[in-house]
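Example 249.
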Amino acid sequence: MRTATTVAARAVGVTKVYGSGEATVTALDAVSVEIERGRFTAIMGPSGSGKSTLMHCLAGLDDVDSGEVFVGDTKVTGLKDKGLTDLRRTKVGFIFQQFNLLPTLTAEENIVLPLAIGGRKVDREWFDTVIDTVGLRDRLSHRPTQLSGGQQQRVACARALVSRPEVVFADEPTGNLDSTSGAEVLGFLQRSARDFGQTVVMVTHDANAASYADRVIFLADGRIVSELLEPTADAVLDMMKSLDGVVAR
Ligand code: ADP
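Predicted structure in complex with adenosine-5'-diphosphate:
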């Protein structure tokens, strides 16, 4: 049994059902998983396997039909609006495929916005470390439209990290990037786990992206069916091929 401090988030027997009657879809079927602190975990699986639903449930963006979710020592299941708002402000950071930066704010303003909204002070030393790690020092006064896609996603990474959340959740973070910019962002997520002990959970359908993670969890039909540690892109691809076979049958 691992101690609580090694687990940044966990799902215990989580089931999530969409729709009703004949249109019922069991997106998650009694999923239990522990996300280890300070590691980079990827969630993979065929389209419709439940990846996004699992991430949304772990992050408190979606409620569950049964089971329980914890982020750090906070029980997310059953939290009311205020508790969920607190959770999103202080315990989790998000990186989205579409960057989701505010166009009227500079890069720096975007990065510190979550702290400002939460009434929290910026730790300047940590801010500087994050900015230098993502290489944004000379772009801080630029607005999103003055930045490339890769730079915008690096701003989004910095925004997610600057509050030192319990978990950073990244939803297809390289989906809108060319391969060079994608590799930069993935390298940065990898370093943030290895060098800074930041827990990162990433949903992806890209085997190469998943190979940057320390651990890959595979979903099929709403269940965790396999996992790989220290994965190579080839090993992830092989696993995906075998899962496509399972799903197709
Ligand atoms: P993935 O991220 O692996 O593509 P999702 O978690 O998005 O899978 O979806 C899992 C299943 O749940 C799919 O069958 C999908 O159609 C269904 N689903 C997801 N969100 C909704 C929703 N809001 N309403 C109805 N069905 C949904």
